[in-house]
Design goal:
11 strands, two-stranded antiparallel sheet, alpha/beta, Rossmann fold, 7-stranded mixed β-sheet, homodimer
């Protein structure tokens, strides 16, 4: 196990789903010999989708090359899908990071940054159908490893993902110790954490409040795919000229 | 199911363990027809035990009578064990709240406020032995209901507890819908979320960093018990005078 110091950082943005960040943070901030810093388009207060106020420690450009980059999701991801500054930052950090870890619809941001081409990845169950537009191999698993890219499914999957990232970075014993400190022996009250196990009327009830968001995500995702196709045919045209 | 509006609030304090709060928040902030407000001894930024900055929306005295009071734990709980202002606030809120919900060592604060006498309750596994000093019936379960008082075990147990509180407040269907939205179908990577299942060397490794804290907690907890006993004998003296 490599025990050099680890610089861990997370992207925070307005409208994120706070536990996509705070869940993995709880695990990763406990790693030995590591620092954890939050970065945003603007430094200072950042409100999550329900109004919970977190704080970006610094602006994107202040980040050194990170060893681990955490990218949470949430409805606010939509506003960043065409944000060249944020997408360029993700690409630049991903190029040098030992581990890029998306949670929930944070995967859509990685997709928009062009980082999911040919990559096995997952995201929230209600957004999984969008991943192929980014060239990804959409994988219905709770945590997916593909080289340096780790993706976790919706929301609470970030805790499971973070413990596996912890194991990767610092070994099984340290990851197990963190799991015990967090008393992570979950007892979900119902067997309905995925659409496969939830009754249909619960799936319908869950889809209702996010219907507009899911439709809007399809629009931005298709726009990305259209641009990629156009760029591809431009490249082909040039090649044949 | 009673569908009147719910005022939900949480106590935030320096040195809390953020996910004791953010875990249940993620669930309870999604309840229909409800508001969620954070209260602190001081309004404004509040740093958790690892330095993550949250924010108290208002000071304690600005809180109306809450319907649901969430009390997270974390090392910072120690500084509040003799804080008359905070303890009086907890007592006053608990007297009128429909549900008082502690997570992790938040239970020690309820104990210090005198709210655990004769109550079945739980807390983080490393602090469970402290609960009897408060007159509680220490119960080694992940979530414990005793009348209006709900307590969850360590850290991540708050998510399970919050889903059960959600069911209590808004019914099974709404709680199930929230669980599905959070994709809460956990897959812990190891079977070591409790000392009963973790190997002994992992239990030892987990106890090491919290040894001083656990010892300090025993001191404050015993002080509470001594005061209670003294008050009891003063009452007896007066009674016999």
């Amino acid at each position: 196990m490599d025990h050099r110091p680890l610089r861990i950082g997370a992207l925070l943005f307005e409208g994120l789903d706070q536990i996509d960040f705070t869940g993995p943070y709880e695990v990763l901030a406990k790693l030995s010999d590591s620092t954890f810093t939050t970065y945003g388009p603007v430094a200072g207060p950042v409100a999550d989708t329900t109004g919970l106020v977190l704080r970006a420690d610094a602006v994107l450009e202040e980040a050194p090359q990170l060893d681990v980059l955490l990218v949470p999701g949430g409805p606010g991801q939509q506003k960043l899908m065409d944000d060249d500054r944020v997408l360029a930052w993700l690409r630049s950090q991903a190029a040098g990071a030992g581990c890029v870890f998306s949670v929930c619809t944070g995967a859509l941001l990685l997709g928009a940054a062009g980082l999911l081409r040919g990559v096995r990845a997952t995201t929230h169950w209600a957004a999984l159908h969008l991943l192929p537009y980014f060239g990804a191999d959409a994988t219905d698993e709770r945590v997916v490893f593909d080289g340096r890219l780790v993706s976790a499914g919706g929301v609470t999957a970030g805790i499971d993902g973070a413990l596996r990232v912890a194991e990767l970075l610092r070994g099984t014993e340290e990851a197990q110790t963190i799991q015990l400190l967090l008393q992570y022996a979950p007892e979900p009250p119902f067997d309905c954490g995925t659409p496969a196990t939830a009754p249909q009327h619960i799936v319908d009830a869950a889809l209702r409040p996010i219907g507009d968001l899911t439709a809007a995500r399809l629009v931005t995702t298709r726009r990305f795919a259209d641009r990629e196709r156009a760029a591809g045919s431009r490249r082909t045209d040039t090649g044949s000229a």
